[in-house]
Amino acid sequence: MDDSRLKTPARLAAPQLPSTPAFWRSPVRGVRFTALLGVVLLAGITLLFVTGLLSYAAYNPDLAAVNDKTPDKGLLGFYLFAWPTGPHWLYRLTQGLHVTVGIVLVPVLLAKLWSVVPKLFVMPPARSVAQALERVSLLLLVGGVLFEFVTGLLNIQLEYLFPGSFYPLHFYGAWVFVAGFVAHVGLKLPRTLRVLRHGIPPAADELATPDPAPPTLSRRGALTVVGAGSLLLLVTSAGRSFDGPLRRVALLTPRGGAEPGEGPNGFQINKTAAKAGIVPADTRERWRLTLAGPAGEVRLTRAQLLAMPQHSAALPIACVEGWSTSDQWWRGVRLRDLAALAGHADGRAPDVLVESLQPSGPFRTVALRGNQVADPRSLLAFGVNGEELSLDHGYPARIVVPAAPGVMNTKWVARMTFGGVR
């Protein structure tokens, strides 16, 4: 018998561990491949972070406790500012970008994590202070980015499944992730730029395997697959921010597909009256709007409110989940006129606390700033697109404010306290 048949190849004689470079055999991995993905993520994640902070500011969390879902934020709220009312599509743009870019980056993120997996198993964990800092930043980066993307993706679905409250988890998670992200970029960006400009010798490529498997896909082909995946996600998700055919192809987001009904009230909603616990009888003849302010309390019927000067404004509805509507024509009483009726007749619009008929739930009560009350487009609306509001859209009256998140446009309004925000 030929003894050579009994010999086992050296590579098979001793199983390779993940901590050995030869364990990872894909010929696609390499520093330049990772650097290209990293540059895309650098731009995309920076945009996500900025638009995420803007979304948080849009809730005016430093205005009132009812708006603040992260009361222990401390110094992390240093940047907060009074959210403007113009342009009226501001929140539609910023939050639409935040959610859409986050979804589109998923293939890039997964490819990037796959490309650097060997570095997570390098032993010993650190040979120098610089390497130790790099490993710590890498752990923060990987853990933080996975947490942020998972919680964000769950939040845009119909039912939020992640345990705990989305707002503090996503907010604090973002800052932890960004700490690792900034440290990692500071350590890696100079070399990344050098690699992209000048390339790297094969001997210096620590991500390239010393024992490559037969190639099934080139690095350029892998980048093409990643790009195609991102394009597919863009096409099947971005449409929820538009009307017509684009919304119908938004298959991966809960606000895609057909509009909820037809006619003037046939545009997207976030929560039905039944889901909010609204009792229809409370919205009919016995409904009253209570205005509170320096003049005391004033209780008005819907007929009395409709007898006041009516105004119109074309405004969208845009929600934190990233979906939005086109401009809808709302008609009702200006908030600043209601402020004057409550006793603020000096021309200075106060902050206002708005309470809904809904018995419980987040944002049942919200506070609006004086600049939002003062805007002539800010209305207590009774109709939309030439028709009376439907119950699901907030009948008998709802708030509409330009550039505000959807949850700040309170439906089924029962009470408004002007100047009583604390």
Automatic annotation (TrEMBL):
Pfam families, per the entry: Oxidored_molyb
Keywords associated with the record: Membrane, Transmembrane, Transmembrane helix
Top-level division of the source organism's lineage: Bacteria
Membrane-spanning parts: 33-59, 97-117, 138-157, 169-187
SUPFAM superfamilies in alphabetical order: Oxidoreductase molybdopterin-binding domain
InterPro entries recorded: Mopterin_OxRdtase_euk, OxRdtase_Mopterin-bd_dom, OxRdtase_Mopterin-bd_sf
Chain ranges of the Oxidoreductase molybdopterin-binding domain: 278-418
Listed name of the protein: DMSO/TMAO reductase YedYZ molybdopterin-dependent catalytic subunit
Organism field: Streptomyces clavifer
